[in-house]
C-alpha cells in the first residue's frame, strides 16, 4: 500500500504558492498503479482518496498503521467506482461484480474486503473515496440505471453534461460520503459552471477518459484569488471547502466527484458566476 498524508491549507497561505507547491499540496498524480493500492489521507474532513488496481492476484483491503484501526472500515465508510475492466469485490463473504462506471458503497463495520480483476489483461481500475462514519449502513451496488441523472448546461456554452448521482441520499443511505460521475458531451469542455464553494463540505475530483496528449485545466482557490492545475488522465485533485472546483479540457472527458462534510444536501452551494471570478 502507498499511503500519504496531506495537511490542510489556509486560503491566505495559498496566495503565495507557486505552481510546484500547488501541485504538491492538492494534486494526486499516481492514483492507479498496477497491482497496488494507493491512498492519500487528507486533513480535509479526514477524507481518503485512492486507487486499487488488481492484476494477477487479488488485493485485500488493509488498514494502514496511521489509521490506528483493527481493519480499514472499523470507523469508516467507502465508495468505489470502477473505471476499468470488470471487477469482483468480496465484502464479508458477499460478492459484487462491478462493471465499467458502476459504483459500490461499503458501510462501516465490514472487516474483510478483497478486490480482484475478472481479466488480468484488462484490470479493474477502482477509484475509491472514504470518510469517517458514525453508524453501520447496508452496502449497495449502484449501476448507472440506479443513478439519479441530471442533464445540465448546453453546447452553446460548452458545458453540456450529464451528472450521474451514484452515492447520494436519493439513491443510497450514507453517513456523509457522496459520489457521482459527470460526463461531458462531445464539443463541451467546461465542468461545474457556474462555479461554487460549499463551506459545509470538502470535495475531490478524479479525471478519466482524458484522451492521450490532451489535458484538463482544473481551476481552484478562493473565488477572488483563483489558481489552476494542469491534469492528465486518471489524476485526482483535492478541493478545500473554501475553494472553487471547475475545469476546462482540451477535449471532452469524464470526472468523478466525491464529497464529505456537514450535510448531504447536494444543492448546498454558494454560487459565483463566471464574471465574478478573479
From TrEMBL:
Q: Mind listing the GO molecular function terms for this protein?
A: 4-deoxy-L-threo-5-hexosulose-uronate ketol-isomerase activity; zinc ion binding
Q: Which reaction does it catalyse?
A: 5-dehydro-4-deoxy-D-glucuronate = 3-deoxy-D-glycero-2,5-hexodiulosonate
EC identifiers of the protein: 5.3.1.17
UniProt keywords, alphabetically = Isomerase, Metal-binding, Zinc
Gene3D superfamilies linked to this entry: Jelly Rolls, pectin degrading enzyme 5-keto 4- deoxyuronate isomerase, domain 1
| Positions annotated to bind Zn(2+) | 196, 198, 203, 245
- UniProt cross-references to Pfam families, sorted A to Z: KduI
Q: Does the keyword Zinc apply?
A: yes
Question: Needs which cofactor?
Answer: Zn(2+)
Query: Cofactor binding mode, per the note?
Result: Binds 1 zinc ion per subunit.
A single GO BP annotation from the record?
pectin catabolic process
Q: In which pathway does it act?
A: Glycan metabolism; pectin degradation; 2-dehydro-3-deoxy-D-gluconate from pectin: step 4/5
Q: Does the keyword Isomerase apply?
A: yes
Q: Which InterPro entries match?
A: KduI, KduI/IolB_isomerase, KduI_N, RmlC-like_jellyroll, RmlC_Cupin_sf
User: What function is annotated for this protein?
Assistant: Catalyzes the isomerization of 5-dehydro-4-deoxy-D-glucuronate to 3-deoxy-D-glycero-2,5-hexodiulosonate.
Q: Which family does it belong to?
A: Belongs to the KduI family.
- NCBIfam families for this protein: PRK00924.1 (NF002091)
Q: What is the protein name stated in its UniProt record?
A: 4-deoxy-L-threo-5-hexosulose-uronate ketol-isomerase
Q: Which gene encodes it?
A: kduI
